[in-house]
Structures are given as structure tokens and as C-alpha cells.
Amino acid sequence: MARHKSGDKPKDIRKATIEEVAHIGSTAISVNKIAARAGLSVGTIYRYHRSKDDLLFAVFLDVKRDIHSTMMEAAAEHRIAASRLRAMWFALVDYGFRLPKDFQFVELMNSETRIQFSGNEKLRQIQAEVLAEIQQGVDDGTLVDVNVRTIETVLASPAITLARRVALGRQGIESDEVERIFSLVWRGIALSERPPPKE
Amino acid sequence: MARHKSGDKPKDIRKATIEEVAHIGSTAISVNKIAARAGLSVGTIYRYHRSKDDLLFAVFLDVKRDIHSTMMEAAAEHRIAASRLRAMWFALVDYGFRLPKDFQFVELMNSETRIQFSGNEKLRQIQAEVLAEIQQGVDDGTLVDVNVRTIETVLASPAITLARRVALGRQGIESDEVERIFSLVWRGIALSERPPPKE
DNA sequence: GTAATTAATGAGCAGTTACTCATTGTCAAT
DNA sequence: ATTGACAATGAGTAACTGCTCATTAATTAC
Q1: Is there a single domain that holds both residue B19 and residue B86?
Q2: Per the structure, how many domains does chain A have?
Q3: What range does the domain containing A65 cover?
Q4: DSSP assignment of A63-104, as one string?
Q5: Position with higher pLDDT, A170 vs B164
């Protein structure tokens, strides 16, 4: 009853948007260029997104959800809180290593004023799920008994820094270094003196 | 012999650039709007900066140096490595609290591809000075004996996250919370079990 | 005074922007 | 075949972009 959608347009648009930002930066992106990069006409972009801002936010949210689900899938393979948190941490860093441009895009948009973070329900939910995982660690006596937001800051920040560093391609990072950083962070938030979980 | 510069134009330009980015975001800034906000004509901006990119980078570097010198001044009031590092850490967070827009601008530009970080000598020097401070802590047995870059990542990341959170105005942060985060971070990188330095 | 020098201007340039819409292409149901 | 429904197009548009440069304003040296 309708012209078939040839190919996966939303996917093409997402890819082109991320690549365009990675290529010329957020201070010079344009919808026309994104369309050209995606091999589509401008009109098609406006069929999927109401405005430039809408496009950027949609792609941002999409990648954000990608990262989150990757983390949760990694957590699902473990039972005890310590192992789950460790798996999530490494999944986050690994995402930055595997898809640096995607990660960089999210980071850039995270600092954008236009994107109204707190208002969005989906973002709230993602945040809540992460905090719930940390709460588990507090409850079972693995982590120090302080506000989960506090722990989240200490835990997540270095992972983001690490992934961002790779995304910007400034230097290669060995897996030893990643492991060492996790050790130090875990040392800070774990209750006991035991070394951080390995498996 | 020449017409006097009336007022401090570079300062006006810097201020307007930061405010414009804070107001409409990096994805929509324009030189014309920055000029209008500064109460100057476009030509004047191009008298001080060769291009839009040059303008953004210059302001970025300026703020970056501001932040760094604030940190080093804070450190100068102390002798022992632990106290110096603590002072620097709080100075960084405090900068984000006092001048959120400036801090946010730096963070945004930090994630920009266009800004070639590694190439700049000034940025290199700033980085080197910070690492040297940490090295002091390693040398006198205050911090664990690992690569200074590793420690820097664990130490600086949460401070940046904290300052950024304030910059984006998502939530107010009490000084207790800041203190608690520092405690956890310090716990991770300090060699002994002693609590982090207070004075 | 006036000549020399430079700061600052802002209209104007060619090119680009975000966005629209009349048109065309492609399918399933008739 | 014809129709109806919609995906996709891309030339078109007014506004705006980064940037230039002829001109004016302000100052000092002589």
C-alpha cells in the first residue's frame, strides 16, 4: 500500500550525524551536510525529525540507550553486586573503545545547553537503573554506606574520562591501564580491603 | 601615536563568547551573534581573531589557563603533597561552582575534534605541571606507586564531573557532598589508611 | 595646526543555513 | 490497468553565515 522503505533510513541518519560531528565538530554541523553524508536528501531527514535540534537529541538518546543496554547486558551475566558493577564499568569503557565516535557524540551533547536533560523520562530511567545497581552493592555490604549518587560519581567519572580519551584519539590505552584505574576506584568505594572482583 | 583601545575588548569578546555558547549551545553559535552580545561590530572580532575557530580556541585556552592558575595558586598555600593536591582538587571544583559557564565552555571545547589538543604547547605544559604535583605525592609515599597518569584520571575525573554538574545547573550540590566525594577518591589513591588531609 | 597611525565600524559579499513543498517513485489492493 | 497511499526527492527560499574592506574616529608626534 505504500512505497517500501528502501534500507534503514533512521540508521543511516544516525550514522551520518555522528560521523559529521566527529568530522567537523559540533560548532559547524549542518543538516545539509548530514543529509549529503547519509546519501539522502534533506527532505528525508525532515521526514524523520522535526528540526535540527530534534535530530541531534534523537540521536543522542539513541546512543545513550545503546550504551545503557550494553551495560545492563554485561551486568546480567553476573549475580553478586560487585561483579555486576565491575562488568558494567568495563562495558562502558569498552563501548568507548569500540565506538569512539558514538561515545564522543554523547559526551558532546551531554554538555549542550539546548538538550534539556532532566526533563526527559527515558534519561531519568537510565539514571535510576544505574543507581539501583549501586544500591545493591551498598545493601549487601560490598560498598561503603554513603549516598548512591556520591558513589556513582566516583565510579563512573573515570570510566567516562577513559572512554573519552580514546574517543578523541589522543592516545592509545592499554588494558592494563584500564584495569589499574578500576582497581584504584574500587579501592575508594569498597567497604572491605579485599581486592576488586575479577570474575 | 594611535587611537587608544577603549575598554578591554578581548575581555568583552571572551565574555560574550562564553555566554553565547552557554545560551544557545555549541551547535548554533555564530560570530555575528557573539559580536552583537559583546556590543561590538563583527570587524572588531576579526581584528583580534583570525577566524571563528581561532576565536573559540583562544577563549578555550584562556579559560583553561585561568583554571590552571587558580589551582596552582591554591596549591602554593601548602607544603606537603597531600595538602597541595587536596587544595588543587577543591580549587577545580570551586571554579566550576563560581564560574559555571566558563567551566562548561571549556568542557564543551574539550570534546571538540577541531581543537587539536595534543599539538598545543601551552596545554602540554599545564598537563605536565599537574602530573608533577601528583609525582610529588608518589615520591613522598603519600600516594600508591602507580603511573601518575593513572592517578590523575582517578583524581581529576570526579572533580570535573562535579563541576560540570553544577555548570549544567541540573542540581545544586552541598559542600558535604563534595567533601565526601573527595574522601572516597583519596581513599582509592592514598597509600595509607589515614583519612585524607583536611588542612 | 596637521600629518601619521591605528582602533573600530558596519554595510556588503558570496556562500550556506534550516526548512518547505510540489513532484515523482513504488508498492498493494482493486 | 488503475487507483490510492505514502516514502522519498531535491530545487527553492528567506534568513543567516563567516569574513572583508573602504570608511570613520580617536589619538599622538611633530
Answers
A1: no
A2: 2
A3: 53-189
A4: HHHHHHHHHHHHHHT--SHHHHHHHHHHHHHHHHHH-HHHHH
A5: B164
CATH number, domain with residue A40:
1.10.10.60
Residue A63: list chain B partners with CB under 8 A: none
pTM metric for this prediction: 0.91
Residues within 8 A of B (CB atoms), A 58-97 only: none
Residue A132 is inside which H or E element, if any? helix A121-139
Tell me, letter by letter, the H, E, C secondary structure of chain B: CCCCCCCCHHHHHHHHHHHHHHHHCCCCCCHHHHHHHHCCCHHHHHHHCCCHHHHHHHHHHHHHHHHHHHHHHHHHCCCCHHHHHHHHHHHHHHHHHHCHHHHHHHHHHHCCCCCCCCCCHHHHHHHHHHHHHHHHHHHCCCECCCCHHHHHHHHHHHHHHHHHHHHCCCCCCCHHHHHHHHHHHHHHHECCCCCCCCC
Quick: pLDDT tens for A46-105.
999 999 999 999 999 999 999 999 999 999 999 999 999 999 999 999 999 999 999 999
Residue A91 near residue A74 (C-beta atoms within 8 A): yes
Please check the confidence at residue A3 and state whether its pLDDT lies above 60.
Answer: no
Interface test with B, best of A17, A21, A23, A26 (most B CBs within 10 A): A26
Facing residues of B190 across strands? B143
Nucleic chain C contacts, protein chain A, residues 10-39, CB cut-off 7 A = 28-33
Contact status, residue B74 vs residue B90, Cβ threshold 8 Å: yes
Whether residues B109 and B18 fall in one domain? no
For B24-54, write each residue's pLDDT tens digit.
999 999 999 999 999 999 999 999 999 999 9
> CA-CA distance, B58 to B64, in Å (whole number)?
10
A73 and A164 part of one domain: yes
Q: How far is CA A14 from CA A3, A63, B84, in A?
A: 22, 9, 46
Q: Is the sign of the CA dihedral B61, B130, B177, A107 positive or negative? A: positive
